[in-house]
């Protein structure tokens, strides 16, 4: 069925992607099932990149984009269906997520036509990969404290500073960087959203080794790095608004697919508990039940959030969603160790080489869930100040 022409029902759309995945996750691609994702981005990167490009060639990338930019203008519901079917097929984690789900929608919403024509085709075809230059050593959860600067020098920007916790910077071709373009400015004022090429002498990427012994996060150093003058998204000095728009897209439809992955993890832990007898422990049985309920609550809230975004009425929903899934997933990692018992304390191989099993890796990486993408503390401040109307937290 060719769903690229004309309207199709949601059932037809679901059957189409389900059939395509069954027919294409075969041969060499079959080996990629379940690979990649947070804490596991090192797994079969080149092969997953080839898979992403295979998806793109078949028209399964950028579904919600306008047709004029290569998308299908799929409805919100159909985008959710795609991510759910993709997750149910245990298809490999996407390499191109940052470009397709974050920068692409940002350019469509705020970019110039020239920027859209320059960058959207490369995102859609997965020929250019992107990373996100937000956090800094002194501006992690408090993004408004960024100090990385950009100064206009003729027809180019000269960028100086440091970013940290930059996911997949070591494989990215470009980075969208929140930087300070107005000397002496503070907080939200004087920031700009600049597109910077990574393959140049002024950019140095240094991997950060994590608890899992992998290094998908990086430090990025800019030392008079250059970018064209016309590669500011939005107006110069309006970077905070653009950056917040990107964060809204970050918590979009792909979260429904993420939750199917969570459900698979929970099912694996529950099966292990039954096999080992750990489920007979009333405390563990209670935690398993609470985890199952929490997953249903998370899904219900995600649907409400997406409906609010689609209606243009979103407020604190995204912050609440981040609190829900991050705390739930971290607790799931702890539950995995409770179920594993003493065996969970012993690595299969050398920990320095990442010799952890699935449950150990789940536990170790989920330590970071409540920090990256906006820490718990920041999310609670947003809810308190913007929704409940409580006094703002004292800031320097």
From TrEMBL:
Q: Does the keyword Oxidoreductase apply?
A: yes
InterPro entries noted in UniProt: Acyl-CoA_Oxase/DH_mid-dom, Acyl-CoA_Oxase/DH_mid-dom_sf, AcylCo_DH-like_C, AcylCo_DH/oxidase_C, AcylCoA_DH/ox_N, AcylCoA_DH/ox_N_sf, AcylCoA_DH/oxidase_NM_dom_sf, Mycobact_Acyl-CoA_DH
Keywords for the protein's UniProt record, in alphabetical order: FAD, Flavoprotein, Oxidoreductase
The chain positions of domain Acyl-CoA dehydrogenase/oxidase C-terminal read 237-388
Entry GO CC? plasma membrane
Q: What GO MF annotations does this protein's record show?
A: flavin adenine dinucleotide binding; oxidoreductase activity, acting on the CH-CH group of donors
Q: Which domain of life is it from?
A: Bacteria
Is Flavoprotein found in the keyword set? Answer: yes
Q: Which residues form the Acyl-CoA oxidase/dehydrogenase middle domain?
A: 131-224
Q: Which cofactor does it need?
A: FAD
Give every Acyl-CoA dehydrogenase/oxidase N-terminal domain span: 12-123
**Gene3D superfamilies with a match to the protein in the record:** Acyl-CoA dehydrogenase/oxidase, N-terminal domain, Butyryl-CoA Dehydrogenase, subunit A, domain 2, Butyryl-CoA Dehydrogenase, subunit A, domain 3
Family assignment? Answer: Belongs to the acyl-CoA dehydrogenase family.
Q: Could you tell me what this protein is called?
A: Acyl-CoA dehydrogenase
- UniProt organism field: Antrihabitans cavernicola
């Amino acid at each position: 069925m060719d769903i690229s022409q004309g309207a199709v029902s949601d059932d037809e759309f679901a059957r189409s992607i389900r059939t395509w995945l069954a027919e294409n996750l075969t041969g060499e691609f079959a080996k990629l099932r379940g690979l990649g994702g947070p804490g596991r981005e090192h797994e079969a990167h080149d092969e997953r990149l080839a898979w992403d490009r295979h998806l793109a060639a078949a028209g399964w990338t950028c579904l919600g984009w306008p047709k004029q930019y290569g998308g299908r203008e799929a409805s919100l519901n159909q985008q959710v269906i795609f991510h759910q079917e993709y997750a149910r097929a245990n298809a490999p984690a996407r390499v191109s997520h940052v470009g397709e789900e974050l920068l692409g929608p940002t350019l469509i919403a705020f970019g110039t036509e020239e920027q859209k024509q320059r960058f959207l085709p490369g995102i859609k075809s997965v020929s250019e990969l992107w990373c996100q230059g937000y956090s800094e050593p002194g501006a992690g959860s408090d993004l408004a404290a960024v100090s990385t600067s950009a100064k206009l020098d003729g027809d180019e920007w000269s960028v100086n500073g440091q970013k940290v916790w930059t996911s997949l910077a070591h494989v990215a071709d470009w980075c969208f960087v929140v930087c300070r373009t107005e000397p002496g400015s503070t907080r939200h004022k004087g920031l700009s959203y600049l597109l910077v090429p990574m393959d140049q002498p002024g950019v140095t990427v240094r991997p950060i080794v994590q608890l899992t012994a992998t290094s998908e996060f990086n430090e990025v150093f800019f030392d008079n790095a250059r970018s064209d003058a016309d590669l500011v998204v939005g107006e110069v000095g309006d970077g905070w608004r653009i950056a917040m728009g990107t964060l809204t897209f970050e918590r979009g439809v792909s979260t429904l697919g993420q939750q199917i992955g969570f459900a698979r993890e929970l099912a694996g832990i529950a099966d292990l508990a039954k096999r080992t007898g750990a489920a007979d422990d009333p405390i563990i049985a209670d935690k398993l039940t609470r985890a199952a309920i929490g997953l249903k609550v998370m899904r219900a809230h995600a649907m409400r959030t997406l409906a609010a975004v689609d209606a243009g009425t979103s407020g604190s929903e995204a912050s609440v969603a981040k609190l829900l899934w991050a705390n739930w997933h971290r607790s799931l990692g702890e539950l995995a160790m409770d179920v594993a018992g003493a065996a969970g304390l012993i690595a299969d191989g050398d920990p320095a080489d990442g010799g952890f099993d699935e449950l150990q890796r789940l536990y170790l990486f989920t330590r970071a869930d409540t920090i990256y993408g906006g820490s718990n503390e920041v999310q609670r401040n947003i809810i308190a100040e913007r929704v409940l109307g409580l006094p703002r937290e004292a800031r320097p």
